[in-house]
Amino acid sequence: MAKLKLEYIWLDGYTPVANLRSKTKIVEGDPDKFSLEDCPLWGFDGSSTQQAEGSNSDCMLKAVALYPDASRVNGFLVMSEVMMPDGTTPHPSNTRATVLDDADTWFGFEQEYFLMQDGRPLGFPESGFPAPQGTYYTGVGYDHVGDVAREIVEEHLDLCIAAGINHEGINAEVAKGQWEFQIFGKGSKTAADQIWVARYILMRLCEKYEVNVEWHCKPIRGDWNGSGMHSNFSTKHMREVGGKEYFEKLMDAFRKHHDEHIAVYGPDNHLRLTGLHETQSIDKFSWGLADRGSSIRVPHAFVNSDYKGYLEDRRPNSQGDPYQIASRILQTIATVPTA
Ligand code: ADP
Ligand code: MN
Ligand code: MN
Ligand code: MN
After folding, report:
1. What 3 state SS string does the chain have?
2. Is residue 233 in contact with ligand 1, taking CB distance under 6 Å?
3. Average pLDDT of the residues in 77-88
4. 108 close to ligand 1 (CB < 6 Angstrom)
5. CA-based, 20 to 30 A from 199: which of 76, 147, 190, 307?
């Protein structure tokens, strides 16, 4: 038996964007055999997280996914849902509980973000601006992506892979100090859980570098790219049946529900979805073949295989809650008959 360090992670009640919170529970167990089922229901003071009144402040934490924590001896990261005191009713802030359970729905999220120090992106001079964007995307060399950024993203990648998070890749992005990682998961909640845990790992890692992770979708005004979280999705029907007629009905539904999608695709998205910088403007819905200026990009492979495969919703931003995004996409898909 060993002392295991369980870091319970949850989303607080702040709006429009929840903050990550966590605290450690020590339990005795065998680190090689420890599993999700071994994680006890736990509680916290909801009056300190905007999830309860002080007079009746208990909220419960239900463990929903477990990841090894390579930064700690015998450590585990425990992604949790916030429940009411009865332990079984989801708390109103619990957006994960709103995602339809479906093992055959797959999501791939492309998370963009800035690394910041002293209020400006890494690599920005104390006053003024660095060279305009152009050579930073997938760049190499100190002038392009230098300083501590490379060290941070490499360390983050290793920690995520050790945790069993299904990273598909990382890259330096278009603006200086801007980066991306991609996570893919089978099951309607898998990738969303992993995005939140990967965000947590990154923020915690950056503490020792005195660097902040800026998730806002447009931290630098002007001719600097904003940050998105392109959301790639497919259902079993989309992958195996598809067809042009179904695709067109699906896009009609996405057009009809455009405003409801935008409402949960992250705050301040009007600053990012301008029609510039590879985006469609926020008040328009469009889809396009391999078109990065559309709301939904249809990959060539999708059309070439009789409209089967996945689609890329380019509207969600970097600060969006992947649970709410997945939930909304599945709600809209559910309005379209498959027969
Ligand atoms: P981009 O050119 O937009 O960066 P990528 O090809 O890098 O696009 O990313 C596409 C993403 O689509 C992959 O990261 C993956 O997560 C996701 N993806 C691939 N196949 C599927 C699928 N069948 N269902 C859902 N998502 C998928
Ligand atoms: Mn990408
Ligand atoms: Mn990108
Ligand atoms: Mn993309």
Report:
1. CEEEEEEEEEECCCCCCCCEEEEEEEEEECCCCCCHHHCCCEEEEHHHCCCCCHHHCEEEEEEEEEEECCCCCCEEEEEEEEECCCCCCECCCCCHHHCCCCCCCEEEEEEEEEEEECCEECCCCCCCCCCCCCCCCCCCCHHHHCCCHHHHHHHHHHHHHHCCCCEEEEEECCCCCEEEEEEEEECCCHHHHHHHHHHHHHHHHHHCCCCEEECCCCCCCCCCCCCEEEEEEECHHHHHCCCHHHHHHHHHHHHHCHHHHHHCCCCCHHHCCCCCCCCCCCCCCCEEECCCCCCEEECHHHHHCCCCCCEEECCCECCCCHHHHHHHHHHHHHCCCCC
2. yes
3. 96
4. yes
5. 147
Are 264 and 164 found together in one domain?
A: yes
CB of 180 sitting under 6 A from ligand 1: no
Residue-range definition of the domain harbouring residue 219: 106-334
Same domain, 220 and 261: yes
pTM of the model: 0.97
pLDDT digits (tens, 9 = 90+) for 283-320: 999 999 999 899 999 999 999 999 999 999 999 999 99
Shared domain for 250 and 153, answered yes or no, is yes
Atom 15 (ligand 1) nearest CA = 108
Same domain, 199 and 314: yes
- Supply the pLDDT for residue 276: 86
Residue 230 has pLDDT above 90, yes or no: yes
Tell me, using a 6 A CB cutoff, whether residue 247 lines ligand 1.
Answer: no
